[in-house]
Amino acid sequence: MTPVRISYYSDVLCIWAYAAQRRLEELVDHFGDNIEIEMRFCSVFPDAWSKIEDNWRDKKGFEGFNRHLLEVAEGFPHISVHERIWIDTKPRSSLSAHLFVKAVELVENERSGNGSQAIGQLESLPMLAVAELRRAFFESALDISDWQVHKDISDTLGIDYKEIDQKIRSSEAVAFLAADYEDSQKNGVVGSPTFIMNNGRQKLFGNVGYKLLEANVQELLRRSPQDEASWC
């Protein structure tokens, strides 16, 4: 059986994507090798300060956004959000964190090409890097746009930061990230998180419940002709 590919677009500073991580874990637990998670980035917080100042100007700016995130977190018992998020720490952009993860992905690709043992998709280095970045920001209120935070995370993952730095300096990681952003626009991704399946025919955006994701995957696994459009 051909695995169902799920292209998962998100921004590391998006709380809805932070909450949706559990749904990815449940999908992998339930469907195992019958699905493939393709992690991609979209640009929701390219200039986080301007975005928050503009969108929350009439709602007390960063303080209002802080209260909003704390209220959102109350609806998701499995996540933890620091009480001073976006007040004591204000990442300027998600771009540098995304760039770090794409560099990690390039490093892992090289290791796999050199015969490194394959690991589970949620235990891949890029997935772990994203999880560490989100924990650092949402739980500990660290500035994940800061390169020092990236270095600390690379140490946690057992990656020599010199490998990461080389991928960034060579612009390989920049090109890799640019491809994500370009593909997100081509696929009509308007926000984070967005799940895309069936060659773009099925697109689920935002705070999508697990049962809806599960139903879409099951429908794709049931269909017989390879090129038949899903009724889901």
Write up what this structure looks like:
The protein has helices at residues 15-31, 48-55, 61-74, 95-113, 125-139, 147-156, 161-169, 172-186, 210-222, and strands at 4-10, 35-41, 194-197, 202-205. By secondary structure, it is an alpha+beta fold. A four-stranded mixed sheet has the order 2-1-3-4, with helices on both faces. The chain is globular, with a radius of gyration of 18 Å. Residues 115-119 have low confidence and may be disordered.
**Order of strands across the main sheet:** 2-1-3-4
Task: Please give the radius of gyration in angstroms.
Answer: 18 Å
Q: Overall 3D geometry?
A: globular
- Summed over residues and divided by their number, the pLDDT gives a mean of 92
CATH superfamily placement: Glutaredoxin
Total beta strands: 4
Helix proportion: 40-55%
Biggest sheet overview: 4 strands, mixed
Number of helices: 9
Write the topology of this structure.
Blueprint: E1 4-10, H1 15-31, E2 35-41, H2 48-55, H3 61-74, H4 95-113, H5 125-139, H6 147-156, H7 161-169, H8 172-186, E3 194-197, E4 202-205, H9 210-222
Parallel strand pairs: 1-2
Antiparallel strand pairs: 1-3, 3-4
